[in-house]
Amino acid sequence: MEADELLVLVAGGDQKAFEDLYALVSGPVFGLVRRVVRDPAQSEEVAQEVLLELWRSAPRFDPGRGSALSWILTLAHRRAVDRVRSARAAGEREQREARRAHHPAFDQVAEEVEAGLEREWVRRCLDRLTALQRQSVTLAYYDGYTYREVAERLALPLGTVKTRMRDGLTRLRECLGGVA
């Protein structure tokens, strides 16, 4: 028997005809659904839903409007597209909710205040250095010069600059409480 004849019998409640129809169309239904849905587990679920719907809605089949296989594959395609759309909509809802619920991991105002306080603390500690130490540290750490370039800029021997830097950084570390 062909799908058209079997579907007419299924519409009348014939379970044996449904078994035969199932065997005939389950492969094409799953293949179509798999191409649309892509996920194997979801595809199996959708194909099962389509075949269950086929049993329930067989009386609605009109052989005068087309073949049974076309009607069944149309049901499968619609159900697969619905599943994809539903999954996409759920994903978009989750993304919107995640964006809405996203709170920064820090309080920007508090961070800016804290950074300002730290800068002020460093300035006070720099003011406690000798002028030569402060000048060497500032050139190296704020202006980005190497020790050798600091020595050239200040017209001092490299060893003198290194000593000033070491002493200045030690005093800064002590002033900052071991943080620096």
TrEMBL record:
It comes from Streptomyces lannensis. CDD domains: Sigma70_r4 (cd06171). Keywords: Sigma factor, Transcription, Transcription regulation. InterPro entries: RNA_pol_sigma-70-like, RNA_pol_sigma-70_dom, RNA_pol_sigma70_r2, RNA_pol_sigma70_r4_t2, RNA_pol_sigma_r2, RNA_pol_sigma_r3/r4-like, WH-like_DNA-bd_sf. This is Sigma-70 family RNA polymerase sigma factor. Belongs to the sigma-70 factor family. ECF subfamily. It holds the Pfam family Sigma70_r2. Residues 22-88 form the RNA polymerase sigma-70 region domain. Residues 119-172 form the RNA polymerase sigma factor 70 region 4 type domain.
